[in-house]
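Thread: Newbie trying to understand structure tokens

Hi all, I'm a second-year student working on a class project, and my supervisor (Dr. K.) asked me to get a predicted structure for one chain before our next meeting. I've only ever worked with sequences, so writing a 3D structure as a token string is new to me. If someone could post the tokens and maybe explain what I'm looking at, I'd be very grateful. Here's the chain:
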Amino acid sequence: MAQKFGQVMMKQKSGTMIHISTVASQSPETYSGAYSTSKAGVNMLSKQLAAEWGEFGIRSNVIMPCLVKTPMSMSFYSDPQVENGRKKLTANKRIGSVQDIANTVLFLASDRSDYINGAQIPVDGGFNIMMGDQIPKPGGRKEYALEHLN
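---
Reply by user tm_fold:
Sure, no problem. This is what the structure looks like when written as tokens:
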């Protein structure tokens, strides 16, 4: 598809390609077969297109969602315990929606992002920055910090 659309975009000297990957393209999602590997390929394809076709006015970027309620993932959220556990993994303590992804697509498709090319944008509620929060600490990290703020 990139080749077909790319030909048209090259002729018009402009265009935007927006690819959908996942944060699991950067850290393996265990026991999911080739899912992470194939999505990592999407990331590299997008970067390759950005590097090679940027001079023709074509931008190529990747959106990397995580923990988003979609028709395909709704069964994961039917168990309130699973949903609450997943919410705890994000910085803003909520599960994403399809609208969150659509908003990012709209931004990347607009002129407001005309200097963004070759980017990988996590749309994950801050999931990718929360690893340190998952490390057990005596007494709890948050409790210690709140107690010593003053």
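A couple of things are worth pointing out once you decode it. Residues 35-53 form the longest helix (19 residues). Helices lie at 2-12, 35-53, 80-87, 98-109, 141-147. Feel free to ask follow-ups in this thread.
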